Amino acid sequence: MRWIPSREDLLQSRWLSPVAHHLQDDRLWHLERGCVARAVAIGLFFGLLLPFAQFFAAALFAVWLRAHLGVAAGATLITNPLTFAPLYWLAHRIGQAVLGDPDDEAAADAVSRHVEAAAAHQGWLSAAWDTVQDAGAPLVVGLGVMAVVAAIVGFLAVWLLWRPRKELPDHLP
Predict the structure, then answer these.
(1) Angle 44-48-52 (CA atoms, 0-180°, nearest 5)?
(2) May I ask which residue range the UniProt record assigns to the signal sequence (predicted)?
């Protein structure tokens, strides 16, 4: 906790001074059911949708939608070095299913032959870039589907599991 800056430190930062007036809303800092639910949805959405600048996009939208800033930024960590490959593989598979791309060994062999042929003519880096571009549409569609579904599920999970505290009476009978 000592490495995490306090709210006051952030508001006094010279780097954040142009936007500091936007960061003074209490909903950005208090753990309330609606703010946290929105923050989880925002963080999961941008954590899955964007391969870079997730943190900044989530923070920007958290300020705009008045969601908890720290939770939104933390929820983007759904994609990290351990989860990146499996999530992107799953996104590609979902994208293939949505787009109706073939999913068999013949297609994989064709891609392999394409990479080898392209590498022979234009070099490995260029061939790898072409392969990534060929895989791009299913990946983008799959990431979009996963981001929307994760945001909805995350929002609903927080909203349904968060139990408001019951106020205790001032006096006990």
Answers:
(1) 115
(2) none
30 inside domain? yes
pTM value is 0.69
Cβ burial of 144 (10 Å; 0-12, 13-18, 19+) is middle
Residues 6+ apart with CB under 8 A from 118: 126, 127, 130, 131
The model's pLDDT over 39-75, given as tens digits with 9 standing for 90+, comes to 999 999 999 988 788 888 998 898 888 898 888 988 9
Structural domain total, the chain:
1
User: Element (H or E) spanning 8, and its range?
Assistant: helix 7-12
Residue 14 belongs to domain spanning: 9-161
Nearest to 61 by CA among 71, 52, 110, 51: 71
Q: Answer yes or no: are the C-beta atoms of 74 and 99 closer than 8 Å.
A: no
